[in-house]
Specification:
- It is built from nine helices and eleven strands.
- Strand 10 and strand 11 form a beta hairpin.
- By secondary structure, the chain is α+β, with helices and mostly antiparallel strands.
- The radius of gyration is 68 Å and the shape is elongated.
- The protein has a four-stranded mixed β-sheet, covered by helices on one side. It has a three-stranded antiparallel β-sheet with strand order 6-7-9, with helices on one face. It has a two-stranded antiparallel sheet with strand order 1-4.
Length: 483
């Protein structure tokens, strides 16, 4: 009986009274009617040299190292304790080791069986190329078998495949790979030299191409800058013209407004003058009465005021004389400073007003042009539209007379040829053949006129139609066609 504690890498396995099966713990009281032992969960390594055959009937040796130990959970430890533990031969305590030899035999048999099953379904090329897949498949299948013993694969390392005694497959394969690598290295060297020469030529060509591109881009940019400068100059000129036009319009508008304002003020002055005359007439009688009354009062006040002011004047004259002497000195200096300041301000004011006057003149001129355009617009509406305004302006400017003179001068000295003909006096009769006869009678004078006006003669076959001549009688400037 006693309180037992296991090591960090081991567990206590307790059996006996009060425990239906087994109990796995780290520490516990062990009673006399109970029995306990210790199991270690430290993993152990072991190597195997596996002989296997692929699906191609190629034998090879597969060296591998596995790290296996009990799984650290209660169910796995229970299975491990029941199946694989035993009493240590060199210890008086009930300490159960891993039973390594026995366990290794079991694990080796499982690994060999599962590995042979997997290898028999794969080719040698698949084992080489898919080494990780092969390793994963072996671990997965072996782990399924080890779960029933409560064991776990912590690590598995499959070493390089080796030839079995009497077989040289991997030797020849290694020699083939070596020769292939050597030949490939030679090909790679030649290819690298070729790529170097090609790359060098490409770089030279690209260098020349880039230089040409840069030169072309520079020329294009220079052309674009010149074009932009020309556009900016044109825009500046347009802006200047618009500003000048605006100033001219403003000048004209200011002139028209000044004239309108002057007329309005003149009218107001006349109205005020009339009202003033009316009020003056009304106040004449009242003023005469007030003057007589105030004259007497003013005479008395003037006498009193004259005496008082005589005394004050003498005192004030003396005081002013003293102050004038002082102020003359001070004001002399102030006057000099003020004069200089006023001269500077006058110069600045003159320059400012000259600039403002120029600007206002331009504005007035522009306003005048605007008002003139508005006047033309009103005249156009009064005269029935632009055509009426145009007719009015042409009448005002004697345009029709000028056009007539110009046309007369244009045709002066010309000598046109005028041909007149008729087709007889019976054109209005009820003759059914009259239209045809009139048409045929009109051809000779028409051809004669064309010949005289343009010099083009009709063809010979047309002049001989009918067999009786053309019947034309030309007298002076008149051509008459008889029946």
């Amino acid at each position: 009986m006693g309180y037992n504690i296991s090591d960090a890498n081991s567990y206590l396995v307790i059996t006996g009274g009060g425990i239906p099966d087994i109990k796995i713990v780290k520490k516990a009281w062990v009673w006399p009617w109970q029995k306990h032992s210790r199991i270690s969960i430290s993993p152990f390594d072991f190597e195997i040299q596996l002989q296997a055959m692929t699906i191609e009937k190629l034998q090879f040796s597969l060296p591998a190292v596995f790290t296996i130990g009990p799984a650290d959970d209660v169910d796995s430890l229970c299975r491990y304790a029941k199946i694989l533990t035993g009493k240590a031969a060199n210890s008086t305590k009930q300490v159960t080791t891993t039973g390594r030899n026995h366990v290794q035999d079991i694990v080796k048999g499982i690994i060999e069986g599962e590995t042979r099953v997997i290898v028999s379904s794969m080719t040698m090329e698949e084992i080489f190329k898919e080494r990780e897949v092969f390793k994963t498949a072996v671990i997965r299948n072996v782990q399924k078998e080890l779960d029933q013993f409560g064991l776990r694969i912590y690590n598995a390392n499959v070493k390089e495949l080796q030839d079995t005694p009497g077989s040289e497959y991997f030797t020849f394969l290694s020699r083939k790979a070596h020769e292939g690598a050597s030949n490939q290295a030679k090909v790679d060297v030649a290819n690298a030299m070729m790529m170097g020469n090609i790359g060098e030529a490409e770089k030279r060509g690209k260098t020349r191409q880039e230089i040409s591109k840069i030169d072309a881009a520079t020329a294009v940019l220079e052309t674009q800058r010149k074009s932009e400068k020309a556009q900016a100059d044109a825009q500046l000129a347009t802006t200047q013209i618009n500003l000048d036009m605006g100033i001219n319009l403003a000048k004209i508008e200011a002139t028209r407004k000044a004239e309108s304002k002057d007329a309005e003020l003149q009218r107001e002055v006349e109205i005020q003058r009339a009202q003033t005359e009316l009020e003056a007439r009304r106040a004449t009688d009242l003023v005469h009465a007030k003057i007589e009354r105030e004259s007497a009062q003013q005479e008395a006040d003037a006498k009193f005021y004259g005496d008082s002011k005589s005394a004050d004047g003498f005192f004030y004259a003396q005081k002013q004389k003293a102050e004038a002497s002082y102020l003359a000195t001070v004001k002399g200096a102030d006057a000099l400073v003020y004069q200089q300041k006023q001269e500077a301000e006058a110069s600045f004011y003159r320059a400012t007003k000259e600039a403002d006057a120029a600007f206002v003149a331009k504005q007035k001129e522009a306003a005048g042009i605007t008002e003139l355009a508005k006047a033309y617009q009103h005249m156009s509406s009064v005269l029935g539209g632009p055509q009426g305004l145009l007719t009015y302006m042409m009448l005002q400017n004697n345009t029709h007379e000028k056009l007539a003179k110009a046309n007369a001068q244009a045709i002066h000295g010309l000598q046109p040829k005028i041909t007149v003909w008729n087709t007889g006096e019976n054109s209005g009769s009820a003759d059914a053949m009259a239209p045809v006869r009139n048409l045929m009678q009109s051809l000779p004078p028409l051809l004669s006129t064309i010949h005289e006006q343009t010099g083009i003669a009709p063809p010979g076959w047309l002049a001989k139609m009918g067999g009786e001549g053309d019947g034309m009688n030309v007298k002076g400037e008149k051509m008459v066609n008889g029946d």
